[in-house]
Amino acid sequence: ASGPVEVVVDTAKPGSKIDRNIFGQFAEHLGTGIYGGVWVGKDSTIPNVRGIRKDVVAALRAIRVPNVRWPGGCFADEYHWRHGIGPAKDRRVTINSNWGGSTEPNTFGTHEFMDFVDQIGSEAYISVNVGSGTVAEAAEWVEYMTADPATTAGKERAANGRKAPYKIKYLGLGNESWGCGGSMTPDYYVDLMKPFARFVRNYNPAQTGDQAMQRIAVGPNDADTGYTEGVMKAWKGHDWAWNIEGLSLHHYTTGGWPPSYPSVNFDEGAYARLVKETLAMDDLIAKHGAIMDRYDPEKKVPLVIDEWGLWLAPTPGTNPGFLQQQNSMRDAIAASLNLNIFARHADRVRMTNIAQMVNVLQAMILTDTDKMVLTPTYHIFRMYLPFQDATFVPVRFNAGTFKQGDIELPRVDAVAVRDTAGKLWLAVTNLDPARPVRISGRFPGMTVRAARGEVLTAPRVNSVNSFDAPEVVVPKPFAGKAERDGVTLELPSKSVAVVQIES
Ligand code: AHR
């Protein structure tokens, strides 16, 4: 069908809160994700504050990153925090065995990460080393970060430049323990995880009530339900001595393994295959969510999708271990579809972390020495700002489908929210790479005066922003035509629009 798509927004039946943590980020010691991308060192000619790039900080502040997961990833299960504190000249230089065998100078450690999180106005999500570390090492790290300055651990922290305890809002108990984190069975992981959950204590006196540190256990790999069953069963039977406040899920769009979708110069057939695969996130959440519901019908334990995004073939000529890829209009559409799926599952999915923040995988930002460019995915995160902590508003629509070669896809996707100030927003994605679509928005019971916001589109689905041409894919002002209880939006092909519905 090529007629208008009617989107009916039911403002009378608000749904779940869309936790701002759904817009979280992941920053691993991997390639130039930290070194070069965030950290340039205090003596760099690249403008910085205490070694951290000013341009990157300003860009990240503008998208109000709610939390940053660090130091990995696979890196976390081989990270020893003591290598990353104290005078920079004395820090141990190690090898990043997971990612390209590069030299790890450890100049970006605990204090530098906490400074970074503070500069961008975010919360820390620390992943402790369960795979090759010990309970004692993890417990001492969190003690070092959070203990009273009168204690020995707190004095050491103060001697290294920080008197007041740090705040650690989220604590990851290992990473992919079914894979790079130690190839553990679910039962083995559960037994190992419990002492971490018990003994890794947060001593920051300010972290009580809703500020208390939330512990996130390793959960499923894609569709494998072993860890979902194992960890949730253990959680259901947990005693007073331990608890967890989140279950992690990792899922990437890859096109098989090794990742095969190119990040540039792909055609519309490849676009359609990738988008189809991306939409599978919905079933995946439903599948794990159904298991979680059996053990936790009250949805106390959130599903934390702390690694997601497009994992594409590495940019030719780059170190394949650095996971560098370009980011196109296609990536922006995939980001919007994933965010919409998370919003629809907001009762269970209360935190996610796109992989990764800078220069790695589906990044927000690409840098090259002193140059920086914002990716199409970055612009989606900025356009979706009103969704942070907003209330989900149900929408009904019959999207219809279109065919790209042998792949059938929905023509549009749509979600609506009421933001924290009470304003109504509608986000609509036109998945069709070639045809515009007319959206007939209906808001029964409302008199619509205007629909204004932004649209992100590009000449082609494979259009990218480069250092030489940074504004090929950037949001533009966009308005609909208001008429009584409705609004008409003329969406260009391959576009994402986010508009405020004014009444
Ligand atoms: O994001 C890259 C890697 O993907 C992470 O280190 C790991 O957890 C996952 O396999």
Automatic annotation (TrEMBL):
The answer, when asked if Magnesium is one of the entry's keywords, is no
* Stretches assigned to the Alpha-L-arabinofuranosidase C-terminal domain: 306-495
Keywords in alphabetical order? Carbohydrate metabolism, Glycosidase, Hydrolase, Signal
What is the enzyme's main class?
A: hydrolase
Q: Which domain of life is it from?
A: Bacteria
Question: Catalytic activity annotated for this protein?
Answer: Hydrolysis of terminal non-reducing alpha-L-arabinofuranoside residues in alpha-L-arabinosides
Gene3D superfamilies listed in its UniProt record: Glycosidases, Golgi alpha-mannosidase II
EC number annotated for this UniProt entry: 3.2.1.55
Record note on quaternary structure:
Homohexamer; trimer of dimers.
User: What's this protein's family per the entry?
Assistant: Belongs to the glycosyl hydrolase 51 family.
The protein in question is named non-reducing end alpha-L-arabinofuranosidase
Which species is the source of this protein? Answer: Sphingomonas rustica
